[in-house]
Here is the input.
Amino acid sequence: MFKILHFGRSCKAYLSLYKDHAPKIKLCCEACGRSLHKHGRYYRSVTTKHSIYRIPIYRLYCPDCRSTVSLLPGFLVPWARFATWVREAAITRKLLGLSYRQARKTTTVPALRYSHSTMRRWWKRHIRTASSVALWVAGQLVSAGFDGDLLRMYPPGAAKKPEDTLLWLRQLLSCYTPVYPWRQGYFALLNSRLPGAELL
Ligand SMILES: [Zn+2]
Here is the structure.
């Protein structure tokens, strides 16, 4: 199991805080409620625009359930090798009309370039998850008392395209977080808040 939390806005910030020390947080087991114990760490690599970082991932353990929880920073989701802001930048460029090739070329240095099929996979995944993430963000806005017409923000037109939902999600996000979270981006910010496995 894993738990995604906000542990700094960048890999450098994460490393300066947690290179040698586990985060000082107390969590309870989601299954039985018992306090989790520290349970060592392992290392994972994370690729950013310019570098590959090796970062420690701290683990917690429930002695009753004998289950382990890995604490991931918001910019690193379990299935991904690249930091969320690289994927987010690539998806944003594609959404603005750039080709896969142009998006790939402008989001990492040449030595760290990802493949065409990786980019396509990111794009398809985003299209798949965007509607449930958009509904979650809309729900958050409604419960916070936002009084704008959220459905009106959906791009007009009779022929709906998958990109329309992506554009709607961006509109909702600009209401949810009026100041764009520079450095970490929307994906890392949302990953530590989204319920379930609807990760970006
Ligand atoms: Zn437990």
Observations:
- The chain has six helices and four strands.
- The chain has two domains: 2-73, 84-191.
- The helical segments are 11-18, 84-95, 100-105, 116-143, 162-176, 185-191.
